């Protein structure tokens, strides 16, 4: 038990009226933190009006009767209070100091006994044989001592080892034994009822055996004037977790054409990182003799975020286990967002929606585009609609590859290939919707740009303005390293009958090193709100949002119109309608936390971090394993490693508001000057922030969009 000298406030009582002593006693100085089970606290009293400062201490309350006292004990001479192991009912009691010079002179304070809740992260994880995985623990409420006892149990031996960090009590390193079921637990040293456990499996490989994975990658080719490169593919794993084969499409297409056959491959965990369970090298060996090598960080659930930076191609991507039983099970509608370039190397963006009938037909759909500032390059009057010739089929030679034909009302026909990625078609608002990775398969010309991106299952619902009533985070990228993060709240004011809804919030933007941070849009003094959103006719899922701009400028820079195709409530793909920046990205729902607010103590854990979207070849992609810890005392630390180079990462973080936004300030790796990053939380579970986006906000330093996930 910790002996704390806490200044707990209370009322002060003026005594001595009967005796005329004029003695006053004050307990504490105005601060009233909670007291936790078994905690030991020393109360102090200030006595005025007499030279005898001696007091006698006592406690009282509705539940404070019996032996032993359910409210705990207090030493009558020293004021040392020891809280009970169990919370009394009611949990409120009074601590009283009585003057030795005048028994009618008292001072009192009301205190509350509060249970401690412990959360261990990651909450869901698999660990490879012999690999190392860091676990963190936090105690809630935030003021609770961050002191823990860790334990390890397993079904067989060797069990592995769990070693608690000497400096941070809420951090423990597990080194795995053999294949088996394992339980890691952390318990507050004060409250033995607070134990929280994580049950997981030790497996032979972090690549799930006998499964299919889908991947996508985008970057730049230094041998071809740094032109954009895109890859979408599918790989199969064998019994041991090795890669036994697969297929991929590449843009620009190689002379031999697409698809390219993947003969084999492997995933090898890192041997020089303390978190080897979540870092390694992914290798794909192609039939044409080429080898693609990626540095990858893995999330707790086994999704890969990866970069390629060792050769002429630099860029980043993602690979996740496919969900083949979820796709094509009857009619399904998908919202999509594609980005790429036209035949003149200008940036192009597409957003839209497609209704697949489960039998190879695309029965309906819409598409909006922006080609270097023109929204009429594909559709003379956007949005385009899809005609009866639109279809999709599975490749007869490569089961992981599908082909799609989009017959547009403008008279253009475009072809795409796609592969299955992760997720579920049953998800409503969760962080893992059914996802497909798509890539254009036409030769690049004036009407067939090189595009790639994602298609996400659209939850069936009525997409009126009310469907977008809540909080969201939008991560956006435009040409020449123009990136932004927006926290927005849609109010649903038009009630789905047409009209316009209100959009409010804040955003951070890094336009090739020029930083704009807007703490509130519209500004407080605005007479009207130009930040609006409205559902298109038919409530199909197409919206127009007014975003970004600069409400702090003089004169004000008005917001930019974006078209959004929704995949769910407060979720969808965004495209600016007419600017030459061709800003593309996605909106993600930000669910309310169980406690009603976000805080720094909700972020401790191990995060896989990687470049997510980059529109400038000059920005080197990277991956990080970030370890966020809360040693207590209001300190929140960042540690970890960045690759390539296995560079140490150090710094601090803070959620500065209750809306899930904040900052990470890094002191390493370079640049040598302090680097700051804005963070926007997008998902939380079990009182822990599981996903967040990040952009650099250091003046003069361009940034990409960066994604972090436990």
Task: Explain what the structure shows.
With 710 residues, the chain is mainly β. It has 6 domains: 3-112, Sandwich (Immunoglobulin-like), CATH 2.60.40.1080; 117-203, Immunoglobulin-like (Sandwich), CATH 2.60.40.1080; 212-321, Lipocalin, CATH 2.40.128; 324-457; 465-589; 600-709, Calycin beta-barrel core domain (Lipocalin). It contains no helices and 52 strands. It has a 9-stranded antiparallel beta sheet, with no helix packed on it. The chain has an 8-stranded antiparallel beta barrel with strand order 19-20-21-22-23-24-25-26. It has an 8-stranded antiparallel beta barrel with strand order 36-37-38-40-41-42-43-44. A hairpin with a 6-residue loop joins strand 31 and strand 32 (401-407). Mean pLDDT is 88; it is low at 1-20.
Question: How would you summarize what this structure contains?
Answer:
The chain has 710 residues and is an all-beta fold.
Topology:
Elements: E1 3-4, E2 11-14, E3 24-27, E4 40-42, E5 45-48, E6 55-60, E7 73-74, E8 80-82, E9 92-99, E10 106-112, E11 117-121, E12 126-128, E13 132-140, E14 148-154, E15 160-164, E16 171-176, E17 180-188, E18 196-203, E19 212-221, E20 227-237, E21 243-251, E22 260-269, E23 279-286, E24 291-298, E25 304-308, E26 313-321, E27 332-341, E28 347-356, E29 362-371, E30 384-385, E31 391-394, E32 401-407, E33 413-420, E34 435-440, E35 450-457, E36 470-478, E37 482-490, E38 501-511, E39 514-521, E40 532-535, E41 542-547, E42 560-568, E43 571-576, E44 584-589, E45 605-613, E46 623-632, E47 635-643, E48 647-655, E49 661-668, E50 675-685, E51 688-696, E52 705-709
Parallel strand pairs: 1-4, 12-18
Antiparallel strand pairs: 2-3, 2-10, 3-5, 4-8, 6-9, 7-8, 9-10, 11-13, 13-16, 14-17, 15-16, 17-18, 19-20, 19-26, 20-21, 21-22, 22-23, 23-24, 24-25, 25-26, 27-28, 27-35, 28-29, 29-30, 31-32, 32-33, 33-34, 34-35, 36-37, 36-44, 37-38, 38-39, 38-40, 40-41, 41-42, 42-43, 43-44, 45-46, 45-52, 46-47, ...
